[in-house]
Amino acid sequence: MTEPAYTVASDSETTGEEKSSPPSPEVAIGIDIGTSQSSVAIWNGSDIELLANRQGQKFFRSYVKFKDEIPASGVSSQLSHEDEMSSGAAIFNMKRLVGRVDTDPIIHASKSLPFLVQTLDIGVRPFMAALVDNVWRSTTPVEVLAIFLLELKAMAEVHLRRPVRKAVLTIPVSFTRFQLSRVERACAMAGLQVLRLMPEPTAVALLYAQQQQQNVTENTGSGSEKVALIFNMGAGFCDVAIIATAGGVTQIKAMRGSTLGGEDILLNMMHLLLPDMNFSSLEVDERRKIGLLRVATQDAIHKLSSQSSVQIDLALGNGIKLCRTIDREEFEEVNKEVFAECERLIKLCLLEAKIEEIEDINSVILVGGCSNIPKVQNIIKDIYVRDFYTGIHPLEAAVRGAALEGALASGFNDPFGSLDLLAIQVTPQSIGIKAYGNKYVPIILSNTTIPARRELVFTTIHENQNEALIVVFEGIENTLTKNHLLGYFKVSGIPLAPKGIPKISVCMDVNSSNILRVFVGVVMPWERNPPTPFMVVQMPTIDGEHGLCAEALSKTYGDSFDLIAVKVGL
Amino acid sequence: MSSISLFTPSEITGRRIAAVPAPHIPTNVCFPHQLRISAGYSTADQRAKETSLQTGSLYEILGIQSNASCQEIKSAYRKVARLLHPDVASNSKGGGATTEEFMRLHAAYATLSDPEKRAMYDVTLSRRRRREARLAASSFPEVEGRRRTWETEQCW
């Protein structure tokens, strides 16, 4: 019903533009929001260019500092002192915090941060606040992200001398659709239209595909298929993907992600240095100390990548002095679980991509800050003996790929064929519904090529059950509650019938822009026409507090509106 | 087409809605026992196209010979994907139709690039060809054969 209003409003808006022909498409910028640092790049017509701020920086610390009335971010301002990061006024790690509920282990681990992260452990959004002049000022990860994006946008506008409205952003593989919706909201708040939210490995794959494509043209080679393993580990997330590319067309064979990152390594090290400290309930003065420890530990971890041991000397106030030497062996021992998980992810991915011989892989591409850690490199070398691919800058890979996608999604063409690229994407997570009481029934499986559509038929479990509750979840876990609630709705008006007779068809559709829609229709075997109108629901419909919601639904309704799948003899 | 929620968020904010092609909605909800319900959203033209595509073999969809090698299947898939993928095609054509075509292309590729599935498909295909030949010779209505083919293609 609102459609005409949109047409009128936007029609008048664009009539001016249409007169000035030919309308050259506005190239969307590519943005890589990292847990620790971010960057922006654009296709400038012939090449990818990283945008720099007035100080000439191309990488910006991902934080927003609340002070006085106007918040400032790592884009425009530089911290006068590293300690400012530990004062509690600066909010960072928003990429890790966004779209999570207070039962999430990531949120619990974030209680060691210098700003306030409060949890009630009931599955609602955690309370967050920055310490400004000894006052806790509340904020949200989305708000912080929006302020940060606004500054990135302003920086790009200064650089490009034109308004910037469209963007492609990279996101971790493990992000849920709810988290994507939060990122989209932050972009909307910053006045950016999101053309695509791209899993980071896909962005890297696109860049790799372009390089391979150029090599082929230069060497006039046959353009044979190249298979690459992409390992991307930053401060907040670890993604692995196996891709195949030839002739500019890239297929994602398998993709896996986790919330494993430098932050976990950092926390393990802080526990090692201050074993008696309870990091999850900190007093205000303790927060500052921990903040200082955080900065010093981070520095030590960086040094351990190039030297075999590091000395930490830190005054924590009240006469407490920390003085310790840590060698690489100890570092690797403390973080052995993190490294084991990296290895597991890679092996899982190889298995899913059906790579039988490791020799079938032509390139291994390491991306992200943590890929610099010797142990991480050794793990991969144990699996893949040949040298790593060197044609891609580990910190610029994602943003460069996003800039390429920005040009493609804006409909930009390159006369020299540099943009003759297509990345066929996959759904990183499975999507399904709750059935059989508390079971997760995936309908679209993870690593399914999109656009995708799949339908499953369900039926009622009670006699004369005239309603069914469709609860949509996303995730790769077998246990329902470990996955993420995306939304729910009720199908009513099912004609009275014995259990197992009405057929409820649930169809999931993911289009090429990764929009998920759920279609539900009821069919009675003896009726030609459906007894009730079909339902079409775009997901996620949920607006936060999804943990609490999932629990309330199962507590209130139990299995009274439940469904089971109809076995189809194939 | 009354609900705005059918549009993608990006389509609402940016371009003129009038210029945006109607979003494609799955035409049918199909059930195993041949019950077919039309949601009534798609155009007759689109439906006709789908029907015509359904009758072709998976090899025809990829534009290859039935003895094509694995490598040929891969490169044919890429070649056709470059034309049909909604990301590429949306610049020239309406998005909905190519989404359907691409999904069909991908399904064909998924079957033929897996040796086991391909072998199974080849068996059904030759069986179907024989039946079609038989049907053509006899006086059975052709419709019957068509419907069956459609069924086998959907259930591979």
Automatic annotation (TrEMBL), chain A:
Signal sequence, renumbered to the chain: none
Region (Disordered) residue spans: 1-25
UniProt keyword Nucleotide-binding, yes or no: yes
A GO molecular-function annotation: ATP binding
SUPFAM superfamilies cross-referenced by the UniProt entry: Actin-like ATPase domain, Heat shock protein 70kD (HSP70), peptide-binding domain
InterPro entries noted in UniProt: ATPase_NBD, HSP70_peptide-bd_sf, Hsp_70_fam
Keywords: ATP-binding, Nucleotide-binding, Stress response
Annotated family: Belongs to the heat shock protein 70 family.
PANTHER family: HEAT SHOCK PROTEIN 70KDA
Name listed for the protein in its UniProt record: Heat shock 70 kDa protein 8
Species annotation: Dorcoceras hygrometricum
Phylogenetic placement of the source organism: Eukaryota, Viridiplantae, Streptophyta, Embryophyta, Tracheophyta
UniProtKB/TrEMBL annotation, chain B:
InterPro entries assigned to the protein according to its UniProt record, in alphabetical order: DnaJ_domain, DnaJ_domain_CS, J_dom_sf
Stretch forming the signal peptide: none
Chain ranges of the J domain: 57-125
Pfam families in alphabetical order: DnaJ
Family matches, as PANTHER family: CHAPERONE PROTEIN DNAJ 11, CHLOROPLASTIC, CHAPERONE PROTEIN DNAJ 11, CHLOROPLASTIC-LIKE
Protein's name according to its UniProt entry: Chaperone protein dnaJ 11, chloroplastic-like
Organism per entry: Dorcoceras hygrometricum
